[in-house]
Description:
This protein is α+β, with helices and mostly antiparallel strands. The chain is built from six helices and six strands; from the N terminus they run H-E-E-E-H-E-H-H-H-E-E-H. A four-stranded mixed beta sheet has the order 4-3-5-6, covered by helices on one side. Strands 1-2 form a two-stranded antiparallel ribbon. The longest helix has 17 residues, at 2-18. The protein is globular and about 40 Å long. It starts with a helix and ends with a helix.
Amino acid sequence: MKKIMTICLMAVISMMTCGAQTVHDFKVINDEGKEVSLADYRGKVLLIVNTATKCGFTPQYKELEELFEKYRDQGFVILDFPCNQFGQQAPGTIREIHEFCTANFNIEFPQFDKIDVNGEHAHPLYTFLKSKKGFCGFNTTDKIGKFLDERFKQQDPDYAKNPDIKWNFTKFLISKDGCVLKRFEPTATAADMEPDIQSAL
């Protein structure tokens, strides 16, 4: 009886921490056009990334694959969602994108169909992710980060208050039980993320 009460208490605490909904409640389409439930990744630490193949940050695919290979045996998975909303930098079909990524970066982590991450057609998964972790700032010591910060400030001085995805290669770290732990902006490197990945594992 005591064991059952303990399990129930842990479940309640988990729900209070994550809220009623978690990443595991969403379904997505993979690169082969098949529906996948993110509940299939329950018990795994996830890094969810919106990517592009023609971006200044595209070389991050190499770092991401290295992270995946380093921690995959510990239960770490990267979920890649190409998105063409930022400078039209993810052209082509998902099959073409997949072929590019495997040929140039030898990626082995799962890729999914192209989606919108902002606007009226944003995928519900990304609406959820943004609601949990808002924009946390570009690294302005990075050349591209400084450029993006200045560009967005020209368009809207208060742009940082909006939780929308700002650019390609924004990343969300997800706990084993589907909670959104942290958001990393495109300027975050693998070295920046690794301590948090290790803690989540």
